[in-house]
Amino acid sequence: MSTKRIAVVAAGLSQPSSTRLLADRLAEATTRSLAELGDQVEVEVIELRDLAHDITDNLLTGFAGPALQAAIDSVTSADGVIAVTPVFTASYSGLFKSFFDVIDKDSLAGTPVLIAATAGTARHSMVLDFAIRPLFAYLRAVVVPLGVFAASEDWGSGDATSTTLPDRVARAAAQLADLVSGHTTRRDDPFAAVVPFEEQLRRLSADD
């Protein structure tokens, strides 16, 4: 039995957040689907609201602080990513976009990604296909065919659902699990070709 790592990126700003709630539902469903395929799962949730200042600093300076770097490493080394954003002005949130702006453009190539969004009205549901999907296509991720959109009417009282949302969550999670189960993320080590200083000295000594 293999262990798959799922990174969940939630860009909600409020607490509690429907964006985080949807992210948790997708993570739980993905875990169940992977278990059915014989895989163990490690899930790490990244709340972008906690990294807002670090993300801004990185955009201005080009350097990531420890907390942001840990989040970036978690996402870029994951076997699968669940990315959930609230809809602001008919598109993904600025915080969501800024986080993926500070990630190297090649670091998600080939990684399975499930996209999802939340908004107050179903009129914004097309944001999945005209904004979020193109973003991850540019990053060369493998985007799950079914994205999940949740409007206010999809939630009942508390965290209960009142529409077909559970079915959509389950189907999208199953698609992600199928991709993740047969995928292992391998990233090139940028320091793999670096010759240790002691080895450089030894070679210099041998040439003398």
Automatic annotation (TrEMBL):
Organism annotation: Frondihabitans sucicola
Key word Flavoprotein present: yes
Residue stretches making up the NADPH-dependent FMN reductase-like domain: 5-155
Gene3D superfamilies: 3.40.50.360
Top-level taxon in the UniProt lineage: Bacteria
Key word Mitochondrion present: no
Protein name from the UniProt record: FMN reductase
Keywords recorded for this protein, A-Z: Flavoprotein, FMN, Oxidoreductase
